[in-house]
Design goal:
Elements lengths: L13 H23 L2 H8 L3 H7 L3 H25 L6 H18 L2 H10 L4 H27 L8 H11 L2 H4 L1 H8 L6 H16 L2
Helix pairs in contact: 1-2, 1-4, 1-6, 4-5, 5-11, 7-8
Amino acid sequence: MVRSAPSRTTRPSADQTRERILTAALELFAERSFEGATTRDIAARAGVTQPLLNYHFSSKDELWRAAVDGLFEMLTDALTAREEGLRGVDELTTTRLVVREFIYFSARHPELHRIAMQEGKADSPRMEWLVERHIRPLYDTTTARLERLVDLGKVPPIAPAHLYYILIGAGPTIFVVAPECRRLAGFDPLDDEVIEAHADAVLTLLFGS
């Protein structure tokens, strides 16, 4: 009689484990801030042991930076893909559609703006790293585009820096404070129809009808 080979338990790959840790880290850093989130809590939410988390990330700061890198990489990929599909389209239409994509992304990933708001409130090495590595390139691209539209008379004659912060405030905030919105306004800002209506409202605010 031939014995069958013993079955093997399939273990999750190192990449899958790393991704679970990064997802949990983003959630907890967004909810509790860098100081409030512990690696022990992140490991628990990811369903891994503390030693396994330490194997992948040697410190909480390294984990925070890796999580933020991944999130901004997703944002850049989404905006780049949208813009590449608009080659040959006029500047105003392109800007409107890229802004709409930014709002869609903000609805799907409110943790990006929660983390940016937490870190932007005080000078710190993390704030400096975040600005220089991720936010400044987006700021420079956005303000240059808005300045061109101001020169063309397509948007109100407002300094591009102010237009940038109007966009950053008007676009993501409703998703960042979704629990407040549900209680205050009586609707879920993460519903697809509400996201679409909010994108329409922001575009009207910035560019008119």
